[in-house]
Amino acid sequence: xxxxxxxxxxxxxxxxxxxxxxxxxxxxxxxxxxxxxxxxxxxxxxxxxxxxxxxxxxxxxxxxxxxxxxxxxxxxxxxxxxxxxxxxxxxxxxxxxxxxxxxxxxxxxxxxxxxxxxxxxxxxxxxxxxxxxxxxxxxxxxxxxxxxxxxxxxxxxxxxxxxxxxxxxxxxxxxxxxxxxxxxxxxxxxxxxxxxxxxxxxxxxxxxxxxxxxxxxxxxxxxxxxxxxxxxxxxxxxxxxxxxxxxxxxxxxxxxxxxxxxxxxxxxxxxxxxxxxxxxxxxxxxxxxxxxxxxxxxxxxxxxxxxxxxxxxxxxxxxxxxxxxxxxxxxxxxxxxxxxxx
Length: 342
Known about the structure:
single chain, three-stranded antiparallel beta sheet, two-stranded antiparallel ribbon
């Protein structure tokens, strides 16, 4: 860890003595010894700069989340420990787990095996993997949580609002499942839409479409019940984060222009800490107005799509309330009827 300023901790500190000894060994006074030192950390931002100088550690390798090919290799390692049905396509499982780390994939195989064991199956099937992915993403099902009929109607329309807007604006990332069975701590329903391929560049239009999909639930509530509920709290937080990044990080605001106003101070690997903005009240007001503009435009777009598909949404909501879950084959029939013209 980085050494503190003079007066806060001195050379007698055990951590500093360890670091000094390590630096001495890294300098390698004896060229006859062929020693290779490997080190790993998930907190690179707190390392002492002396460790990272040239000649100390000659190679720095970032181990990021695996791509699809990497996920296939990782899954092949872990599935050797369980009996897998011949119908399971590892490539298909890898496509459904975009963004999963190695530990997530190990947990996925374990969860799938547990699900198969609970139903006394001889082998783990693809359905077990799909259900395990849902458990990891959305949490455990809470079938014993009682929800009144009015709330079920609201949740059904909310989730189908997400789904229909996604089908209209983002057809390349299929909606895989909709459910109004409560999961986790507070989710009364959920819509699973996961990309089937890894993406590294996202356009401005795609980001705006993502915000529209996130606001599809709130738009459905407003359109069909002429009121709004607290169910969209998480959607609003995610939509605001995307809109704020578009304005302050990606320079996508027509008002503010191509300025990067966000300086990230990373606290942990893969996470962002507090952002130092460094601009005055006038710019803060402009940023707020730009973010509000993106959100308002996306909400209007979502409402327009749902208004065009009003009959389809009401019919699908009745179906969802009846069966509680709609899977891919049901959703494909809905997708074929979605009107996308604006």
